[in-house]
Amino acid sequence: MSEFVIVKKKNRKSQQFKLSQTSFTKDVDNDKDIKKIDINKFSKRLDNCIAEVEVSPFFTETFDIINRALHAVRQHKTSNSSTCNQIDEQLPAEVSPEDVLDEGSLNQSSGDRLSSVTSRLEAVTVADEPRVQLLSYGIGNFTTSLIAQYQFAFFLSLRKKLKEHYQTCLVYDPVFSPDEKIILEKYSCQLISQNEEGCRECAEPTIAFMPHCGRPLYNNFLWKNLSPSEGQGLNNVVLIGNSFSQIVERTPKSLLRETGNYILKIQPFVKETSLPDSFILRDVFNDLAVHSFPLAAIQTIRSDIGSPLQKPEYHRNEEEFIRNKKCH
Questions:
Q1: What is the pTM for the complete model shown?
Q2: In terms of C-beta density within 10 A (0-12 exposed, 13-18 middle, 19 or more buried), how is residue 86 classed?
């Protein structure tokens, strides 16, 4: 279980893993109680999980949801680039921009020229399209929890699906064991060097995977990305995590103001799509949703909240949120 999540234990078990994630309430730097594992043997199990996720209808449908949200982020990012100028420069004099929208009005010769131009324009668009940063907080001990293992498999499947369109793959959870850190390196994941408490600004298009995390982690992440450049950070984000609408609905307002005030303020403006409830293990992706943040909505939020944005402070002992001791 990650520092950010509390999940109740279930009675169901697999042959080798507890299905539920285990809550770490003790010092996460104490590794002496963590058993060593056979990394090669575990890697084979993880590869099987990845294969299982990739062929599931759940992953197909979920990736479509993520891809549509990501397209909107990229579209905004590229709208401020010089792509339009490049397109105008590549159109031949005989083919006007209006003709591109009405290919049927062209004669065969112009149609051939348009086909050539279209191919070049597609190359410009792909080359100019910003690559995606993958970020994960709070997966937990994926060598001992089947839930965490499938969540990690999903994250790796997502990266594989994106192919060359991702630029970095960042992961952090303070409960990771030494063996898990080795496995992360083996699967080309970059371990964030310290506990950021979710305070990472996303300057580029980012898919943030934060399954079953605690309210303070989401809250910190929202604050950090709402703060810079009129909320441009948040506009770069596609966040996969606990449904904000359900958090607001299920959490007493007094408690939410203490532990998730930015969730409360931002939720009415978020574009949210629930993940399908079709994965074979229901506890792995339950209550998760894809969240995106349209720029117009962010500007409204900034106007309502005012400036400067106050950094969240938590006065109660949050069991679902392990802090960076060096910063407190």
A1: 0.76
A2: middle
